[in-house]
Amino acid sequence: MLKLMTDAGNRYTKLALFQDKRIVNQTRIKNEDLNRTSVGEWMKDFERPGYVFVSSVSAREDKLCKLFEEPGVTIFTRSDVKHFPVTIDYLTPQTLGFDRIAAACGAFFLYQGSPLLIIDAGTSMTVDFVDENGVYRGGAISPGLDMRFRALHEFTERLPLIEPNPTAVATGKSTDGSINAGAYIGMVFEIQGFINHYELNYKKLKIIMTGGDAELLQMQLKKTIFAEPNLVLIGLNEILDSQIARR
Q: Is 72 helix (H, G, I), strand (E, B) or coil?
């Protein structure tokens, strides 16, 4: 039986069909273009999924659920989750972003038995830690790459809005170069600082990176990093399987 995972972000929604643990079809659709027609066109060559997991960073879950309501389809959202594949050690679990939990569950499934540092470079950047026993210990949230460039432009009078330059260096020789040094290379240094911090205490640390800006940031990082663009979708599938197994 197929299972459909939906990960709705601020601008795009990722969808993936799973057969057991394997992705058999996936796509990304702009939120304004997401409807029954676009989803149906994407799924036309596959059987109807028996389960759908809807996850959204915004308050659109009810609207998204309606896209998939059909007889014989069981829909899950965050509120239906009673068990996680990882243990949550967090003071305010009710405020913990579900994408962060899903990424942690996905990383634990892929690299079980190792301490894990999970870096999700999206609209915001999250850095989360899961220990070798599968306990989610928490992490950090900071502005994402696009947010950093936009903040410099929107909160100053004269700084231009520019794109990240993959060849940027730490010492900018122009205003554009200096913005890249601060926003782009500064973010690289921030990530490197987190990696160094955790590697001091966890010698077998595995670093997993996901999110829209992961590839751009990895160009500047001098570490062995496991890139997994589908990490959140894999984690959602693990969370769903955990619910199905206990029904």
A: coil
